[in-house]
Amino acid sequence: MSDPVHAVLLGGSSVVLAGLASAANAADTLSRPEQIAVLVIAALVLTGIYLLACTVWPYANCPRCEGSGKSRSPGGKKFRNCPRCEGTGRRERLGRRLLRKGDR
Ligand SMILES: [Zn+2]
Q: Residue 14 Cα, ligand 1 centroid: separation in angstroms?
């Protein structure tokens, strides 16, 4: 886990989970619709953080070639463009694709 975005997301979600846990302690005072609202708001906040991260860091390494953009021969000396990413070595993240669709 060297990806700083995922580290931030994991850190953020654990903070939210801790908040949810303390909210759960107070859940006796919350009515059922209010509990659902808390969950929905937490999900929206996490989604917002993820989409923001996807605009700042829109790409991840291609899973097939791990970012090299090359598909190597068995000997490892010859290569062609990776068919998955067409030689770019990068993969567009899901959030980025969703945002582009939203622009249209
Ligand atoms: Zn690739």
A: 32
